UniProtKB/TrEMBL annotation:
Superkingdom field: Bacteria
InterPro entries for the chain: ABATE, ABATE_dom_sf, Znf_CGNR
SUPFAM superfamilies per record: Jann2411-like
Protein name: CGNR zinc finger domain-containing protein
Pfam families noted in UniProt: ABATE, zf-CGNR
Organism: Pseudonocardia humida
Ranges of residues in domain Zinc finger CGNR: 143-186
Amino acid sequence: MRENRPLDPAPEPLVPAQDLVNTWFGRLAGDAEEGLATPVDLARWCRAHGVDVADDGVTDADLDLALVVREGVRAALAPHNDSVQPQDAQALARLRDVAGELTLAVSLAAAQPALVPVGSGVRAMLARVLAGPVVAGDQTWRRLKVCRDCRCRTAFYDYSRNGSGVWCSMAACGAANKQKAFVERRRDRTIAARAARGA
Ligand SMILES: [Zn+2]
C-alpha cells in the first residue's frame, strides 16, 4: 500500500511537476507502487489535473513519454537538495531529447502573459508540467526538491524559512535516516573500541 503521508503541495505552477514525480513512491517501490502502470492510469492522471483525456485516448507511446518526462524532472530536481543527491544524467538527457515534442506558446490574450500548451491530450498535459518551472521562476523552482533518501525520492516543496530542507518529511525519512546514522556511528565506535583493545 502507498504510504499516505500528507505532503504540502508546491505553489500552483509546480503542482503538475510535483504530482507527476510522485506517481511513483520510491520508498515503497514495488510494481504495485507504480502509479502510471498503464495508459488508463495516465488518462486518469491527466483528468485529475484538468486535461480531458479519454481512457482509450492514451497510447503506450504516450505512457513511455510521460515516464521519460517524470524521471527527467526527478533528475532535474536533484541538485536543488544538496550535493549528496545523485543526479541521473541519462534521465536528463532523455528528457532533453523529447522536450521538443512538447510545445508551448506565449499567449498575451489574457490579463497576464502566459505559456500555453500547443495541442491537446497527454502532450498538452506534459507541456504544462514543463512550463511550470518557467512560470514559477527560479527561486520557487529551487525549493521543489526530491527527498535525500535515495529509496524515497518523493518530490516535496521546501517551505522551511532558510530553504535547507532535505527530507520529504521529518517524521518519515528524516527520523529513519537519523536513526540509521546513529546506529552506524555506534557500530563504528564499537569496532574502533574493539580494535583499540586488540580484540
Ligand atoms: Zn522521503
